[in-house]
Amino acid sequence: MTVSTDTQSIHKLTIGVMLQGLRNMARIMDKAKAEAPAKGLKTEALLDSRLFPDMFNLLQQIQYVCYLSADFARHFTSEPPPRVGYDEASWEELRNSLEVAAAYLGSISPATVASRASALVPTFMDDSKGMKAIDYAASVIVPDFHFHMVVAYGLLRNNGIGLGKSDFLGPLPSVEMPPGKSGHCTRSSRRWSALLGLQPGEELV
Length: 205
Known about the structure:
Layout: H1 5-35, H2 43-47, H3 58-73, H4 91-106, H5 110-115, E1 120-122, E2 130-132, H6 133-158, H7 165-169, H8 189-195
Antiparallel strand pairs: 1-2
Helix pairs in contact: 1-3, 1-4, 1-6, 3-4, 3-6
């Protein structure tokens, strides 16, 4: 059965974008763990770092990345969500929760998301309040998910981990444009490469 473009789009911009984020955060954690010893950093100490005393630490930021995605996805399946974002206390446990959450989101079909997009769902902040699933995703879940992703990225970068925008964005499904169809870039390729943390001659993969 062919899935319509609209059906695919609703899934891609909700479940799909968070699934990509979970995978990107897993790669970021792997990179941080690999670099930490050479920089004199301990992963457990990194987990306790925070931008400001009244903000969540790195552990809690990534816990929310796991929790928000799984809690939203549960509205599109009869399978209960995994317990992620609650009890993790170590780097390995947190890294595993990213994998578990990603597997859960990966089981959600585009057709199911589209069919339930207008369903009323409770908010995680106050389950006595509800929103249409699509509005909840656009107004709360996806922005909040990326808020915690950005803070986690910033904490690791601030601690000296060599991350770039390409780590945050992850692999891009780009293709070569047909001749005469590429238009004009608003920023030079050199500036874009610098923003993505690429070295001269390095390809974005």
